[in-house]
Design brief:
Radius of gyration of chain B: 16 Å
Shape of chain B: elongated
Order of helices and strands of chain A: EHHHHEEEEE
CATH class of chain B: Alpha Beta
Largest sheet of chain B: 6 strands, antiparallel
CATH class of chain A: Alpha Beta
Largest interface: A-B, 33 and 33 residues
Number of strands of chain A: 6
Number of strands of chain B: 6
CATH superfamily of chain A: Hotdog Thioesterase
Helix content of chain A: 10-25%
Oligomer: heterodimer
Number of helices of chain A: 4
Strand content of chain A: 35-45%
Distance between the termini of chain B: 19 Å
Number of domains of chain A: 1
Shape of chain A: elongated
CATH architecture of chain B: Roll
């Protein structure tokens, strides 16, 4: 099990989403909402284009924590707010999101970790927080 | 019909349990681009957000309650939280019950919170998923 103290920074992670990744996530998760694969349907809802599944962004964000943990089973709580959509253009470049995390406090064998998710210049998740068991 | 605060407390249990298979866990881990070895092989556990999928049959029941009058294509996922009693693992047979916990209205927009209890079919608690969704009833 990890040791942690307030202020510890976890190694950051940058993930690139391409259209292919959204199609794969749609298939694996069963979330076939067309805003994640059709520009036409995304535009009809007033979006600038196809957006990543919030749950895919959420899954990627927690990797900053689970990559750091010796065992992902030490995660006891994880929550996010979806504040901005991640627009994924159709092209090789896709959309990149950078995740970073800092231990906020440690008490009673639990560490509370704040996660930040930035796409372009914008925060795409709010109040992203994980609680993990530590030594 | 339309949703209102009197519907807080309504519960929807998935008609069928979800059998967690190790190949489905691997497929999901591949789809989120996560190479963690804990999600692969005979003793595989599921990535944390796999839990959302386990609630989808209960959510489908909630959405099909005609008295609430909700439409999937008018819903935006606002927030999501999981608490884990233990990791979900290959071989688990999971039952899901979604309960409406909050309904707030602001004009045409309804903000709904629901909590999905995930347990084994033998009644062992595994995880709780708390979701906040916004439903827009305005005609586009």
């Amino acid at each position: 099990m990890k040791t942690a103290e307030a202020g510890t920074e976890l190694p950051p992670l940058t993930v690139t989403f391409r259209r292919e990744d959204l199609v794969r996530y749609a298939g694996a998760s069963g979330d076939f909402n067309p805003i994640h694969w059709s520009d036409r349907m995304a535009a009809a809802l007033g979006l600038p284009g196809v957006i990543a599944h919030g749950m895919l962004t959420m899954a990627s964000a927690v990797r900053v924590v689970t990559d750091w943990l010796d065992d992902p089973a030490d995660l006891v709580e994880y929550g996010v707010r979806f504040t901005k959509p991640v627009v994924v253009p159709d092209g090789d470049k896709g959309a990149s999101v950078t995740f970073s995390a800092t231990v906020d406090k440690v008490a009673d064998g639990l560490a509370e970790i704040d996660i930040t998710a930035i796409a372009g210049e914008e925060k795409v998740l709010g109040r992203a927080r994980a609680v993990v068991r530590v030594q | 019909m339309t949703i209102d605060a009197t519907m807080v407390g309504r519960s929807y249990t998935a008609a069928e349990s979800y059998q967690v298979g190790r190949e489905k866990i691997r497929e999901f881990a591949d789809a989120i681009g996560d190479p963690n070895p804990a999600y692969r092989g005979a003793g595989a556990i599921a990535p944390p957000t796999f839990a959302f999928m386990l609630g989808s049959r209960a959510l489908a029941q909630l959405l099909s309650d005609e008295e609430l009058g909700l439409r999937l294509d008018r819903i935006v996922h606002g927030a999501q939280k999981f608490t884990y009693t233990r990791p979900i693992k290959a071989g688990d047979e999971i039952a899901a019950t979604a309960t409406i916990t909050t309904v707030r209205k602001a004009g045409d927009v309804e903000v709904i919170m629901y909590e999905t209890a995930l347990s084994t079919v033998d009644g062992e608690p595994v995880a709780t998923s708390t979701s906040t969704i916004s439903h827009n009833r305005a005609d586009a």
